[in-house]
Design a protein that fits this description.
The chain is an alpha+beta fold. Among the domains are: 100 residues, no CATH class; 108 residues; 172 residues, Elastase, domain 1 (Roll), CATH 3.10.170; 90 residues. 19% of the residues lie in helices and 33% in strands. The chain is built from 17 helices and 47 strands. A six-stranded antiparallel β-sheet has the order 1-2-6-5-4-3. Strand 24 and strand 25 form a beta hairpin. Helix 10 packs across helix 11 and helix 15 crosses helix 16.
């Protein structure tokens, strides 16, 4: 069957971005070829319409990824492969109706990348990929030990490292700390930029040093050069502003909740498996609610195990577990031994179950389950009757934990603190986290960038919808759009709320295009742009129709890498499929337009700074400047080529110069003093530090090692750099350009670690931590390279975090964090002999800054910092500040010098 080459009259078609395959075809009714399964019929249909879809061989390049059945409708998801290798986010959806054995296609949507040309032969094996991924995460944690509010795992919601020993990646006992990261390879994946990049996908798990907050990163290592071309945190949290600590970590994807998933910590079935026991408990708001419970005859108690709701699998239940006193790092992505369901001697659960949030968590899980079942016929979170497990009482290293998360198999709720109740106390929080699970098992929106912001938006929308309906809150109530407003013990709802879907201000014009290191690319910062449009739709169309439209868009239209534009098109198309009236569809369009989500909206954002190098397309490579020149890494426009190093004048005059060779390696983290450029070249054999004069000449290899940190500097004849030995033990090296073979290294051992080097005027400054007579000594040190003379600038308490350094002809500058969990750091200055110690900005008091990096010249000190009290939004993102001598010459003047947009 050849079919027609173009959609029928009245159909809507949205072109794909960066692909010849349309992003959306809707409003058609075309016969699908006869086939054994719906997936086979979908692939045959796409093949029959190759002139429209540009998919040369759907039978080979598209693998079945699940079929959603609802009455006579079938939604088939197909995963793109490139020569047998899965493509990240490459997923295409075919919607069809089935009647009397005949299938009719009603629409398609998704991402199929037609420009992929990359080969699929890897030169980097799984072992090296895991090592590089773990190294990359470890280095990132070390580098971001200061100013954590800018680049925390939790992004917009974390408040800082507060005295963690992240600068050295080691605990006080000298163990590896951050070295406790582990990686799991998932094999080859094509990252679909331009012609594609062949990568190995590695999941890195573990905990941050000292504080132990959980870490989970999805890292994609170039399979030819071994460089991390993409990485983002998989943490999906609710989040509350100003909360110390980092949210939990999602676990592996896929169906969860069976006893096999829990391994040795599996639930012991109740002696009486018969459903029908109903208990009660008091929520934290004082209301008494019914609870689905089970009698555990063996223990003689009742447990929070609801056997009445999930009918499709008698082994699967809704259960609530007591994690009191457990650290969140021990709960995320794992099922710890000895965990027990919350129990009571009688069917009435008492004060302990109330105060821990167990009653709220169990009751709310039932409410969310019932909502999805009643409204959409969804059989639990995965649509196939999975068990729903909730854990309450999680702590942050024994301290209050004010957050909640979904980790791929369960919900985990923190204890709360003096102001915030346990996080399960708010029905919209529980709905938010359980909706993350629904998103994971449907559209699978990647939790980064615009797709991650839509993931958060959908979690907020449905969490709020469930709460509003349960509380019978009218949509015209100004508080209906508040998220998390019932969590506080003393603050009023509006002051307590984390976000407001009805704020009337958040539009695409306020979109913050931050990198993945900041809030995973703005998943929380930008979510209300999309969620606000959805909430407006609910106000205009009413809850029932609006919820059905949004759910249909989520489960039948959206695919993993969709952004706001595709989300808008999906919601409008879903409204049409549900036969909404003309005025209703107009209201849907109007809601998105009001929030600035219109075709090509990104082009209107603009910039407010002078561009020296346009279309920079690199991941996590530092910039450098000195002597009137800048240096930066860049790739082709699609990011599919290995990175190269370029140099240019800071006044914008002249032509850019390419400094690095085209040898297949990634050339990153350049630095210059205006005469020489130095940088790192990353390849399968390790890392080289290379150098080349700006005036031209051959590229020289200065140093070779297994792994280098991002700190690298050159001044005259001296080059200083950070490196890592096996196990993540950081060290500092320095050498002369005249004699690079004579390299001097410091640290790099289990009990002696050095980091954050800077260089100027023949002197190298660095932070040092070593064990001396069973006691750890932390010092800021300076060495005169010509003489070898070493000076201790200042000693610090063992639990003080020491951060980046800078040095000039007259002074040493460095960052330190001595006050735990306060979200600020100190910028300190001293003379080259350690005298005249002065704090340019203190860690506490008015005007404190959360500083993450520092550079210095004879005329000014420039830092990357944010103001800890700015909350969520552009103002909370890191900005550049400068400290300059005042006119009297006996103090400093400080001012923000960066642009307005984040």
């Amino acid at each position: 069957m050849s079919g027609t080459a173009v959609p029928a009259p009245g159909a809507s078609v949205a072109a794909g971005r960066g692909t010849a395959t349309p992003a959306l075809v809707d409003g058609i009714r075309e016969r699908a070829p006869a086939a054994r399964t719906a997936a086979d019929a979908a692939r045959a249909y796409l093949a029959a319409h190759a002139d429209r879809y540009r998919i040369a061989d759907p039978g080979r390049d598209l693998r079945p990824a699940g079929t959603l059945t609802s009455g006579g409708r079938r939604t088939v998801r197909l995963q793109q492969t490139h020569h047998g290798v899965p493509v990240l986010g490459g997923q295409y959806v075919v919607r069809m109706e089935e009647k009397d054995g005949r299938r009719t296609v009603t629409g398609t949507s998704g991402r199929y990348f037609t420009g992929l040309r990359t080969g699929t032969t890897a030169e980097v094996d799984d072992t090296l990929a895991v090592e590089r991924a773990v190294d990359a995460v470890r280095q990132d944690l070390d580098a971001r030990a200061f100013g954590a509010g800018t680049d925390d795992e939790d992004g917009a919601f974390g408040t800082g490292t507060g005295g963690e020993d992240g600068a050295f990646g080691a605990g006080a006992d000298g163990d590896d700390g951050a070295g406790q990261l582990t990686g799991t390879s998932h094999g080859l994946v094509v990252v679909p930029g331009g012609t594609g990049v062949l990568t190995r996908h590695v999941t890195v798990r573990g905990s941050r040093p000292a504080h132990g907050e959980p870490v989970l990163r999805e890292v994609y290592i170039d399979a030819r050069a071994g460089y991390p071309v993409l990485a983002y945190s998989a943490v999906r949290t609710f989040g509350t502003p100003g909360t110390p600590g980092t949210p939990g970590v999602p676990g592996t994807h896929g169906r969860a909740g069976t006893r096999a998933d829990r391994g040795s910590a599996a639930r012991t079935p109740a002696a009486d498996p018969a459903p029908g026991t109903t208990g009660s408990g008091v929520r934290l708001d004082g209301t008494t609610v019914p609870l689905g419970i089970t009698r555990d005859d063996a223990a003689g108690t009742y447990v929070l195990r609801d056997r009445t709701r999930i009918q499709s699998d008698p082994d699967n239940v809704l259960a609530t577990w007591d994690a009191s006193g457990r650290w969140v790092s021990d709960l995320s992505g794992t099922w710890p031994d000895g965990l027990r369901e919350v129990a009571s001697a009688t069917p009435r659960f008492g004060t302990g179950a109330t105060e821990s949030g167990a009653v709220d968590a169990h009751w709310a899980a039932g409410q969310v389950y019932d909502y999805y079942r009643a409204e959409f016929g969804r059989d639990s979170l995965d649509g196939h009757g999975m068990t729903v497990d909730s854990l309450v009482g999680a702590t942050d290293y024994g301290q209050p934990y004010v957050n909640a998360f979904w980790d791929g198999r369960k919900m985990v709720y923190g204890t709360g603190d003096a102001e915030y109740r346990p996080l399960s106390a708010a029905l919209d929080v529980v709905g938010h986290e359980m909706t993350h699970a629904v998103v994971e098992h449907s559209a699978g929106l990647v939790y980064a960038g615009q797709s991650g912001a839509m993931n958060e938006a959908l979690a907020d929308y449905f969490g709020n919808a469930i709460e509003s309906d349960a509380l019978h809150l009218p949509m015209d109530d100004p508080d209906s759009g508040l998220v998390g407003q019932s969590l506080c013990r003393t603050r009023d709802p509006r002051a307590c709320a984390v976000r407001d879907l009805n704020d009337g201000r958040t539009t695409a014009g306020s979109f913050l295009g931050v990198g993945f290191g900041t809030d995973n690319g703005g998943v929380h910062l930008n979510s209300t742009i999309f969620a606000g449009a959805l909430w407006d739709i609910r106000e205009e169309l009413g809850p029932r129709l609006a919820d059905a439209i949004v759910y249909k868009a989520l489960t039948e239209y959206l695919t993993p890498l969709d952004g706001f534009t595709e989300g808008r098109d999906a919601v409008i198309a879903a409204a049409k499929q549900l036969e909404a009236g003309g005025k209703q569809i107009a209201a849907v369009r109007k809601a998105f337009t009001a929030h600035g989500i219109v075709p090509h909206w990104e082009k209107s954002l603009g910039i407010d700074s002078d561009v020296l190098l346009s279309r920079v397309n690199t991941y996590d490579s530092h910039l450098g400047a000195g002597g009137g020149w800048w240096v930066a890494s860049n790739s082709d426009e699609s990011g599919s080529e290995p990175y190269s190093v370029w140099a240019g004048r800071t006044d914008g005059k002249g032509q850019h110069k390419r400094m690095s060779p085209d040898d297949g390696r990634y050339h990153v983290n350049p630095a210059t003093d205006g005469r020489t450029v130095v940088w790192q070249a990353v390849g399968p054999a390790g890392v080289d530090i290379l150098a080349r004069p700006l005036a031209g000449g051959p590229v020289r290899t200065l140093w070779h090692g297994r792994s280098a940190g991002t700190a690298l500097g050159v001044d005259g004849d001296v080059v200083a750099f950070a490196y890592y030995n096996y196990g993540g033990r950081p060290g500092v090296g320095y050498l002369s350009l005249k004699d690079p073979a004579n390299v001097v290294t410091v640290g790099g051992g289990t009990y002696h670690r050095s980091t954050f080097p800077s260089v100027s005027h023949g002197k190298v400054v660095y932070q040092d931590r070593q064990r001396v007579s069973a006691v750890y000594e932390a010092t800021t040190r300076m060495v005169d390279v010509a003489t070898g003379e070493e000076t201790v600038i200042q000693r610090a308490d063992a639990d003080t975090g020491l951060g980046p350094t800078a040095v000039t002809a007259d002074h040493v500058y460095w960052l330190l964090d001595a006050v735990g969990q306060n979200g600020a750091t100190t910028l300190r200055r001293a003379g080259l002999d350690g005298s005249d110690v002065t704090d340019l900005t203190a860690e506490s008091g008015p005007g404190a800054l959360d500083i993450s990096d520092v550079t210095a010249s004879a005329h000014a000190v420039t830092v990357v910092a944010r103001t800890p009290s700015d909350g969520i939004g552009n103002a909370a993102l890191a900005k550049l500040w400068q400290f300059t001598p005042d006119r009297a010459g006996d103090g400093t003047h400080r001012a923000r010098v960066s642009c307005n947009r984040g």
